[in-house]
Amino acid sequence: MLLFLFIKGHITSLAVLRTHRRKGIATLLMERSQEEMARIFGAKFVSLHVRKSNRVAFHLYSDTLRYAIHEVEKGYYADGEDAYDMHLDLTEYMNNKKKLQQEAMDLLSSSSAAEGVNHITTSLQQLHVGMDTDPSSSSSQVIISEKSTEAS
Question: pLDDT tens, 71-104?
């Protein structure tokens, strides 16, 4: 019998003080957490749960960070609300990040700095689609701090 073991990461909670929202903090924290899970622990994917009603968090995870819905967990929360169980393939994420970094280095070494900066900015904008924050939404229990992009 061949047994495959792999390490996965799990985001338990993410919250940002209302006074610090729309500054990109959540995205930066999530990206750094993902990178460290892969680098330090060798995690192959990361998962999280998000309330079906939390549009702002869902947008961050699905559109900005590219998590995919793995399944819907019925009655996941104490109040009976369903949750999306979302996953991100960290191997693919890290490969894409390395590819972008290499592209940036290649551009900076082969063209003018201004052209390189413009291309890098465009590439980063594609990775960091803006996030609308809803001050009335409540997210998580463990405070990490949020990055929502205003005009990335």
Answer: 999 999 999 999 999 999 999 988 888 888 888 8
The secondary structure of residue 20, as a DSSP letter, is G
Domains and CATH numbers, the chain: 9-90 (3.40.630.30)
Distance CA 109, CA 105 (A): 6
In tens, the pLDDT along 5-36 reads: 788 999 999 999 999 998 999 999 999 999 99
State the Cα–Cα distance between residues 50 and 99, nearest whole angstrom: 29
Q: For the beta carbon of residue 92, count every other beta carbon within 10 angstroms.
A: 12
Name the pTM for this structure.
0.65
Buried-state track 77-87, b at ≥16 Cβ within 10 A, e below 16: eeeeeebbbbb
Degrees to nearest 5, angle at CA 83 with 78 and 86:
140
Say if residues 102 and 119 touch (Cβ distance below 8 Å). no
Per-residue confidence (pLDDT) for residue 101, from 0 to 100: 85
CA distance 84 to 30: 17
Torsion angle of the four alpha carbons 24, 87, 10, 48, in this order, in degrees rounded to the nearest 10: 70
